[in-house]
């Protein structure tokens, strides 16, 4: 499972931070940061979800008010918009 985070879309509500500790507050920029991620295109960050953290990652995506977080299963199918 992997997570894709569109940082430009993020509005800094930090609901993802409360749900998954891989997201961190970046108050100086008013955005969240995805720990351990790789920027694959401008402001789009991707990382694999560690085993046992699938529920937290999925829930972080579900609570994002602007759908800046997308979760994909191992087959590349979108799990959460």
UniProtKB/TrEMBL annotation:
Q: Where is the signal peptide?
A: none
The UniProt keyword set, sorted, is: Electron transport, Iron, Iron-sulfur, Metal-binding, Transport
Give GO MF terms, alphabetically: iron-sulfur cluster binding; metal ion binding
Q: Name one Pfam family in it.
A: Fer4_15
What SUPFAM superfamilies does this protein map onto?
4Fe-4S ferredoxins
Q: Under what name is this protein listed?
A: Ferredoxin
- Taxonomic lineage from the root: Archaea, Methanobacteriati, Methanobacteriota, Stenosarchaea group, Halobacteria
């Amino acid at each position: 499972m992997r997570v894709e985070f569109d940082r430009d879309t993020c509005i800094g509500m930090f609901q993802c931070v409360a749900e998954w500790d891989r997201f961190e507050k970046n108050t100086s920029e008013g955005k969240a940061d995805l720990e351990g991620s790789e920027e694959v295109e401008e402001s789009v960050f991707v990382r694999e979800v560690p085993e046992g953290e699938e529920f937290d990652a999925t829930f972080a995506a579900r609570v994002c008010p602007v759908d800046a977080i997308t979760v994909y299963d191992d087959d590349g199918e979108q799990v959460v918009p």
